[in-house]
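Worked example 3 (structure in, sequence out).
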């Protein structure tokens, strides 16, 4: 790939990362505020993770009081904020690449923050999913409230990916420091 083509592709990916970060946060809030939207979009694979995990115990989402919906939006947005943080730094990484700084300390730093965001997303999802299910079922009668804790293979793979990217980011930081040191001697 030519440097010009790589710069153009990096700019497009930077723009896409920003759009994706905003879209996931807005869709999450929209699905909680308009549950019929979530039900109609499940055909496309979009929807609330909650509806598949605790569907048997849920009252219709339209019956939830607004304070409970607001709390559900906050709880379900916490892991998404970690994703958005990662996408923000992925955007910054692609912008760094678009400038031609492939092996800079800045690029390595952004890659490291993407890695930490991936790990944070997995950890926050593990913590917030049970709290979210408990939150939306707390008004159910005794015996129909749910606390569901699960660790999925996808979460474990995300932690592994985050750890791997973190190691790569540290290697790139060391390589960048060595390259800068070598340039000073020349």
């Amino acid at each position: 790939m030519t440097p010009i083509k790589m710069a153009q592709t990096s700019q497009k990916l930077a723009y896409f990362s920003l759009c994706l970060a905003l879209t996931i946060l807005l869709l999450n809030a929209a699905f909680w505020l308009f549950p019929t939207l979530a039900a109609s979009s499940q055909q496309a694979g979009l929807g609330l993770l909650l509806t598949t995990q605790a569907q048997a115990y849920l009252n219709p989402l339209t019956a939830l009081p607004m304070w409970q919906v607001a709390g559900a939006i906050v709880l379900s947005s916490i892991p998404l904020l970690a994703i958005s943080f990662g996408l923000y730094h992925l955007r910054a990484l692609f912008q760094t690449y678009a400038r031609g700084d492939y092996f800079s300390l800045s690029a390595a730093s952004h890659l490291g923050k993407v890695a930490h965001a991936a790990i944070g997303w997995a950890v926050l999802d593990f913590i917030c999913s049970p709290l979210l299910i408990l939150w939306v079922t707390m008004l159910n009668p005794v015996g129909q409230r749910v606390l569901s804790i699960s660790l999925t293979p996808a979460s474990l793979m995300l932690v592994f990916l985050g750890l791997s990217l973190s190691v790569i980011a540290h290697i790139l930081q060391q390589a960048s420091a060595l390259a800068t040191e070598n340039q000073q001697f020349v």
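Notes: The radius of gyration is 21 Å. The chain has a mean pLDDT of 85.
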